[in-house]
Design a protein that fits this description.
The chain has 136 residues and is α/β, with parallel strands linked by helices. The chain has one domain: Response regulator (Rossmann fold), CATH 3.40.50.2300. Helix content is 51%, strand content 18%. It is built from six helices and five strands; from the N terminus they run E-H-E-H-E-H-E-H-E-H-H. A five-stranded parallel beta sheet has the order 2-1-3-4-5, sandwiched between helices. The protein is globular.
Length: 136
Amino acid sequence: MEEKISVLVIDDDDLFRRMMFNFLSKKKFDVNECKSGKEAVKCVKERHFDIIFCDMAMPEMNGIKTVKALKKIDPEAKIIIMTGYADEDDWREIQKSGACAGLLKSVKMDNICLIIEKSIELTIPEFEKWIQETHN
């Protein structure tokens, strides 16, 4: 039996997190969800995820702090920060955080599936280059 691709969705917005969870589950991904950065840290200590989608704006631990904490646990983690809005300073922070990329939450769900599939096929540097070329 083929192993499912494991995806973690971290977002304090219940509606967005559930929408991602439901959509990706229907596409046959192994999806877990967390409401906060602290919850995500516990989750990533317990298991590896093929790709992680993390909200930028969350209380207590924002996306940048969450990415840095997750990368300490799993330096090979492929993490995408998602945001509803970002200015130039936010994009610079995302680039420095250790995340593979930043995406606007308005990205089409079918593109999310492609991003997940590419994250499995490519090394981290290849994935970062691909995502910047195709989603910027």
